[in-house]
């Protein structure tokens, strides 16, 4: 089957959707499908190549509006491919425009609501609604997102829940772990992810300022928030020596950070955080997780008082209390971590995710004319 995966970006652009798109595309290609990924190139020149069995078609980018690339050639590139099925990854409003003339069966993964760009969301609502009506099947990544999103509620009969899955993590380098442990003796709260406004990393720093002990390790590159701003905040709060902003780290360092951390914290404050794949990575590493209740998949992945703690968003005192509970009760934290590892292995297997998505494709082809 020829499958076209369609989104605005693709690695090396960093992000949860981009990483999922790459992993899924390569896995489908390894299973014998012909996979083409169409996206907007980072620059003004388009290009084509094949990488790890996947055909990549990057169309030139004319401009970027509200963090969404505008690439006019997308309007005719996608329909020109005539695939057996198109898998579109929402949100990308310009992509909805490109789908207007597409006749191939359509599957949409609804990654999240459009939250911050309210004006853009209002203007593009008819396009998004048309895409969802036209889709033979819609994939949501958690039951919580289905229940809380008005967009998905309107099309619930065609929604299928397929949680994200990730492959097993390689073991960390013990020498690197030992080296980093000397630098970060702990107790350590680890944040991993791009520094976007909705991640709420500043709330983690404010929570730490309420405590007389503990460190925050922040691993992730600048986006809508800069690491320098977080360092400035920590300095203003008098805890700069307990806040460690590392920027982007390589995979070996990331695995070592998971090994030396005492807890992963995902302090997100907006529904743009629709799942939090990093929580699965932490669970596979045996870490307890603290996340926030957003009505999305965050509290689906982290089960409150089973694999971690779920606190209200934008509430540094509640976050500080959760940190205190886990840091001062290591046996409880260890029990949460073990339960999280079991949940990750049983519920978030990468191969199972790919198989379930193939099943959604089969459904879509059956119901499409």
UniProtKB/TrEMBL annotation:
Pfam families: Glyco_transf_4, Glycos_transf_1
InterPro entries attached to this UniProt entry: Glyco_trans_1 (IPR001296), Glyco_trans_4-like_N (IPR028098)
UniProt KW keywords: Transferase
Domain Glycosyl transferase family: 189-343
A GO MF label: glycosyltransferase activity
Domain Glycosyltransferase subfamily 4-like N-terminal: start-end pairs: 15-167
Protein known as: Glycosyl transferase group 1
Species name: Chloroflexus aurantiacus (strain ATCC 29366 / DSM 635 / J-10-fl)
Upper lineage: Bacteria, Bacillati, Chloroflexota, Chloroflexia, Chloroflexales
């Amino acid at each position: 089957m020829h499958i076209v995966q369609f989104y605005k970006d693709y690695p090396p652009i960093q992000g949860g959707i981009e990483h999922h798109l790459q992993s899924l595309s390569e896995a489908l290609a390894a299973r014998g499908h012909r996979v083409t990924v169409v996206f907007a190139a980072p620059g003004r020149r388009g290009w084509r190549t094949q990488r790890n069995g996947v055909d990549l078609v990057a169309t030139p980018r004319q401009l970027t509006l509200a963090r969404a690339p505008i690439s006019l050639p997308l309007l005719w590139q996608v329909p020109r491919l005539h695939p057996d099925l198109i898998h579109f990854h929402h949100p990308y409003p310009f992509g909805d425009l490109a789908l207007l003339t597409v006749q191939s069966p359509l599957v949409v993964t609804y990654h999240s609501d459009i939250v911050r760009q309210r004006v853009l969301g209002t203007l593009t609502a008819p396009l998004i609604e048309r895409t969802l009506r036209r889709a033979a099947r819609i994939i949501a990544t958690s039951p919580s997102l289905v229940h809380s999103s008005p967009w998905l509620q309107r099309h619930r009969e065609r929604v299928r829940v397929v949680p994200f899955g990730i492959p097993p993590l390689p073991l960390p380098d013990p020498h690197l772990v030992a080296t980093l442990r000397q630098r970060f003796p702990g107790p350590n709260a680890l944040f991993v992810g791009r520094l976007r406004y909705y991640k709420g990393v500043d709330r983690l720093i404010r929570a730490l300022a309420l405590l007389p002990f503990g460190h925050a390790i922040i691993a992730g590159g600048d986006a809508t928030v800069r690491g320098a701003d977080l360092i400035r905040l920590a300095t203003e709060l008098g805890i700069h020596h307990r806040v460690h902003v590392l920027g982007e780290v390589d995979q070996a360092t990331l695995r070592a950070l998971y090994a030396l951390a005492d807890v992963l914290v995902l302090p997100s404050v907006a529904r743009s955080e629709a799942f939090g794949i990093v929580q699965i990575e932490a669970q596979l590493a045996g870490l307890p997780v603290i996340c926030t209740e957003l009505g999305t998949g965050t509290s689906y992945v982290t089960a409150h008082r089973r694999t971690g703690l779920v606190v209200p968003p934008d509430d540094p005192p509640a976050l500080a209390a959760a940190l205190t509970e886990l840091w001062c009760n290591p046996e409880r934290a260890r029990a949460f971590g073990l339960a999280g590892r079991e949940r990750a292995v049983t519920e978030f297997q990468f191969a199972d995710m790919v198989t379930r998505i193939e099943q959604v494709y089969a459904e879509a082809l059956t119901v499409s004319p």
